[in-house]
Amino acid sequence: MKVTKLHKRIFVLSPPRILTLGFAFIILLGACLLMLPISNTNGQPLTFIDALFTSTSATCVTGLIVVDTGTHFTVFGQVVLMCLIQIGGLGFMSMATLFALAFKKKISLSERLILQEAMNQSSMEGIVRLIRRVLIYSMTIEAVAALLFTIRWSFDMPLGRAVYFGIFHAVSFFNNAGFDIFGHYQSLVAYVNDPLVNIVAMLLIIFGGIGFIVMADVVDYRNKKKLSLHTKVVLSMTSFLIVFGAIVIFIFEFTNTKTLGPLHIGGKILASFFQSVSPRTAGANTVDIGSMRQASQFFMIILMFIGASPGSTGGGIKTTTFAILIGAIIAMIRGKEDVVMFRYRLAKERIFKALTITFLSLMLVVFVSMLLSTTEDHQFLMILYETTSAFGTVGLTMGLTADLTVFGKVIICLMMFMGRLGPLTLAYALGPKTEKELYRHPEGKMIIG
Fold it and tell me: What GO terms are given for molecular function (predicted)?
């Protein structure tokens, strides 16, 4: 029987479409589980829109919540959230590969293509080996962090509860989700002066945000004695943004009596660094974000928009995209034709892709912020903060999330979904397959600037 074009369109899906549909299915499944009476305290089930919002936030490793995770959900509901965070952070294809490897199943070519798209790789070479290392690194880092958290929190709560808290927050922070179960929307505010909790949480966020390719490259440095251009750019840009962000927040908030003001100098430094690391798609906080000065809040919006690094658990336009934009500006100012980083010339294709991602993302954030400003009765800075937080899959909020209208919740859900997959992946998934052009138009000239 001859297969029609319609059948081909239905059954032969491209990797971006499979990723999009896969994440959508996990979100719907998670919403159904969160609506069960066993997931909610006192048997009070969530409405569908609230369950969908929470499931989207967990699967897209964002951390925005409409109900308090620590008090509204039972242990079963919290475990469901933790599983959604782990699947969403590592990617459902990575988890599927884990089971395939466990049962010694061969990874097909189509599955390798999907893994290539999920990990944002340019080729399939060594993709299964990379996934195996991703899983090993993730489980090891989360286990060590969970142990350290358990030891610290065993002084504040029973050992069994400390173990559970340690595991949940290690998974949440490493996957840059920002969910916490301390209750009453307090996140890590109670531990603002605690060096161990702060340092472990920041390291988890940084490790989860630099990307698995970078981690693998750093681990292999002992043998290769060489780092790739990608790794050098990610590490240098990440370090710069963290240090520069901490300095800016420290200066802006130093005398703010509602944030850094009451803290001793060590606490001020810790809090400044934590609030600089967290907007890189983590979502946890040790001071009240709504009480920060507007300059600090707007600066954090910029950090959230930049986000984490490619192949990581975070969102945003990515550190490499931001680095390419800076490099292109410097090259243009200097009158250079090529963008050069660490003595490597970047292909024009990479520069165009960085510009496309940034412009699409900026237009998306601006459009959604304008849309929400007509439906949500709040200050525009608060709406812009919420929108950027959703797009960057950050999870920080100035207090708007719980007050969102139904329309606002749907829009923020879509923003979290688009932020997790990336605007280009969604464009490839929704758009038709483009064919190679066989001709070029004559070159034209325009006046710019």
Answer: potassium:chloride symporter activity
Q: Tell me, yes or no, whether 410 lies in a domain.
A: yes
Dihedral sign for Cα 41, 45, 47, 51, please. Answer: positive
Query: pLDDT tens digits for 133-175?
Result: 778 888 999 999 999 999 999 999 999 999 999 999 999 999 8
SS3 33: helix
Is residue 151 a part of any domain in this protein? yes
Q: Domain for residue 447, yes or no?
A: no
Q: How far is CA 42 from CA 39, 50, 182, 183, in A?
A: 10, 17, 18, 16
Token digits for 444? 């034209």
CB 304 within 8 A of CB 205: no
439 lies in a domain? no
Domain assignment of residue 288, given as a range: 8-430
Phi, psi of 345 (to 5 degrees): -90, 135
pLDDT tens digits, 315-372: 889 999 999 999 999 999 998 888 999 989 998 888 998 898 899 899 999 999 999 9
Q: Are 67 and 40 in contact, with CB atoms under 8 Å apart?
A: no
CB 306 within 8 A of CB 300: no
User: In the chain, how many domains are there?
Assistant: 1
